[in-house]
Amino acid sequence: MWIDTHCHLDAAEFAGEQTLVAAAAQQQDVSWIVIPAVARANFATVAALAAQLPNCTYALGIHPLYVPQAEEADLLALRNTIAAALADPRFVAIGEIGLDFFVPGMESGPLRDKQEHFYVEQLKLAREFDLPVLLHVRRSQDILLKHLRRIKVQGGIAHAFNGSFQQAEAFIGLGFRLGFGGAMTFTRALQIRRLAAELPLDALVLETDAPDMAPAWLHPDINQPQQIPRIGAVLAELRGMAVPELAQATAANARAALPRLAALA
Ligand SMILES: [Zn+2]
């Protein structure tokens, strides 16, 4: 079995097609899909998708690229939504949260400060409720790590990981797994492929980030969670492993990173 640890199934690209997309993934043995929230406006949507679709779970959080429009009251709404969601077994993590210093205007000034504020406050919620976090990491590894050293959470997944081996080891040391997906399928992505090939197997999980991050064979079409086995086969090849073993190991890692998902049947 496979697990897609990061898929934006509520995105506009999948409008009206979510049931088909989730079922196509299940036919490819993708037993679980994690749907992260991005803003207060989609908390109810991701929860409803997970309730309707047999292989879907969800996370709750405010994505760094949605922080510019977010209000302070959204953090209180998030806290209340998390407290209520604890009764829902399909709720598995805080996310997607993090810092994006790649998008122009987000890397300095008031938007950087606001991003850090929302990230820190959401880490505190993860600590308060003892939940794993799904991290968005873009040109922000060291600042994310700085706050993780200060605000201890149980761990989680650094999604679409790209960085140095030293940064990867720092995340792993803080209890994180690293998410690999479509980017790894491009032969020119030398650093990501080296990380995927050489990091300890128990640190790796698979993800699509669908509809984004289409693998090489789909690009520039939209990505879908049914691509996970083929993406996993690329990782198996990079590591010189058999595909079934890689599937089993990465699914076990996803369960270890997301204990509430592991508790599902
Ligand atoms: Zn995402």
Textual characterization of the structure:
The structure is a single chain. The protein has one domain: Metal-dependent hydrolases (TIM Barrel, Alpha-Beta Barrel). Helix 7 links the parallel strand 7 (176-180) and strand 8. It starts with a strand and ends with a helix. The protein has helices spanning 18-27, 43-52, 72-85, 109-129, 141-150, 165-173, 190-198, 228-239, 243-257, 259-262, and strands at 2-4, 30-35, 56-60, 91-100, 133-138, 156-159, 176-180, 204-206. By secondary structure, the chain is α/β, with parallel strands linked by helices. Helix 3 runs parallel beside helix 4 and helix 8 (228-239) packs across helix 9 (243-257). The chain has an 8-stranded parallel beta sheet with strand order 1-2-3-4-5-6-7-8. The protein has 10 helices and 8 strands. Bound molecules: zinc ion. Zinc ion binds next to loops.
Q: Which terms summarize this structure?
A:
265 residues; alpha/beta; TIM Barrel; 10 helices; 43% helix; 16% strand; binds zinc ion
Write the layout of secondary structure elements.
Elements: E1 2-4, H1 18-27, E2 30-35, H2 43-52, E3 56-60, H3 72-85, E4 91-100, H4 109-129, E5 133-138, H5 141-150, E6 156-159, H6 165-173, E7 176-180, H7 190-198, E8 204-206, H8 228-239, H9 243-257, H10 259-262
Helix pairs in contact: 3-4, 8-9
Bound molecules: zinc ion (ZN).
The site of zinc ion (ZN) has 5 residues, from loops.
